[in-house]
Design goal:
410 residues; FAD/NAD(P)-binding domain; Enolase-like, domain 1; 3 domains; five-stranded parallel β-sheet; 10 helices
């Protein structure tokens, strides 16, 4: 019997859709199966808290490929199906209906799950999380003129949903556990910019806020009680307190799991016929010299090419710098690089921080570790090159808008 060389992808997000595309593009002509636990074909998640949530993008536009792409490319799409286990010795994945799908090479693009609040009342109706298309639809329905929305968590999801709710005319309170939203990610100076942005747009931003419980009537949320006894009325509560990588399948299959599924620079796991990509992959990054797990769209977009080439026996490594972006009200931001909390000396600003139009550089000595542009366009590629080149520059040159950034490259 001839060996069919079946490749299986577990997941239904951008990484899964892109991986199927890259495998076909780079010559995999054997059977190709994508197994997703949603009824939707693979789609992209950023619009769920950005354009789609704001009603600027339609449902069709969030999908990775048009409907007929899978047929045309002979990709077997199994939707609304959950993989319950991976049998490494038998080379099969088992589905929730007991059936098995054989694989020769397997890609785990299982993504992540929002962390849930564990306070009393957290299970009331209209306590919402954002991960899936249906979640975004429910939020859009809740974000109406005059609605009282409480957002728990001042990370990217919390702030983007707060901006969407304000834009729709809702009254919005953001509860941030720390001193400032995004403090861990951006550090004090840059985090201040986002706090100011939301306050200027009428958001009631509450720092160091703890939640005692969520109250409701008739099974539906009507308020949030804070640790200090304050009661906030609420028609809906949006929770954005981080995500957990979906590692159960990998763990039970005995793969190396540590803050995600551990992979090498080729995105191969500790099992030689299994790879991982996207939110779930804690991948060795040759440029950074360490393992990093990145919860952003750009990774789900670009890692699949490396995974596909590696699955096809080519020597590809993933060494792109992390990148993410956000749109909130009239602020557009792009960020590239990688900085641990406290892993830098200072932040150098070029431009007008008070007008929210600037470029910021996270510095170690004279080297730029990461950079962010806020309402300054077409500079992020140069910033990326600055980080990658490792060139040394003085603060005054970096901070001077008259000095072209390109001139600082070797």
């Amino acid at each position: 019997m001839s060996h069919v060389n079946t490749f299986v992808i577990v997941g239904g997000g951008l990484a899964a859709g892109k991986a199927a595309e890259e495998l076909r593009a780079h010559g995999h002509d054997g059977p190709l199966v994508v197994i997703g636990d949603e009824q939707e074909r693979p789609y992209i998640r950023p619009p769920l808290s950005k354009g789609y949530l704001l009603g600027k993008e339609d449902r069709e536009s969030v999908h990775v490929h048009p409907e007929d792409w899978y047929r045309t490319n002979e990709v077997d799409l199994l939707l609304g199906r959950t993989v319950t286990s991976v049998d490494r010795t038998g080379g099969t994945v088992r589905l929730d209906d007991g059936s098995r799908v054989p694989y020769d090479r397997l890609l785990l693009a299982t993504g992540s799950t929002p962390r849930h609040l564990s306070v009393p009342g957290a299970d009331l109706d209209n306590v919402q999380y954002l991960r899936r298309l249906g979640d975004s639809d429910r939020l859009r329905a809740a974000f109406t003129e005059g609605a009282r929305i409480v957002v728990v968590g001042g990370g990217w999801i919390g702030l983007e949903t707060a901006a969407a709710a304000r834009t729709a005319g809702a009254h919005v309170t953001v509860l941030e556990h720390g001193e400032l939203p995004l403090l861990k990610v951006l550090g004090h100076e840059a985090a201040e910019v986002f706090a100011g942005l939301h306050r200027d747009h009428g958001v009631d931003l509450r720092a160091r806020a703890g939640i005692e419980r969520i109250t409701g009537t008739g099974g539906r949320v009507n308020g949030v009680v804070l640790a200090d006894g304050t009661r906030l009325p609420a028609d809906a509560v949006v929770v954005g307190v981080g995500i957990t990588p979906n590692v159960r399948l990998a763990e039970e299959a005995g793969l190396d799991v540590r803050n995600g599924i551990v992979t090498d620079a080729h995105l191969r796991t500790s099992a030689e016929d299994i790879w991982a990509a996207g939110d779930v992959a804690n991948a060795y990054h040759p440029r950074l010299g360490r393992h990093v797990r990145v919860e952003h769209w750009a990774n789900a977009l670009h890692q699949p090419r490396t995974a596909a080439l590696s699955m096809l026996g080519e020597k590809a490594v993933y060494d792109r710098l992390p990148y993410f972006y956000t749109d909130q009200y009239d602020l557009g931001m792009e960020y590239t690089g990688y900085v641990e909390p406290g892993g830098y000396d200072r932040v150098v600003f070029r431009g007008a921080r008070d007008e929210r139009r600037f470029v910021a550089f996270w510095m170690s000595g004279k080297r730029v570790l990461a950079g962010m542009s806020v309402n300054v366009w077409d500079v992020i590629d140069t910033v990326r090159s600055l980080v990658e080149s490792g060139t040394e520059n003085d603060d005054d040159v970096l901070a001077d808008p008259e000095v072209p950034l390109e001139s600082l490259l070797p």
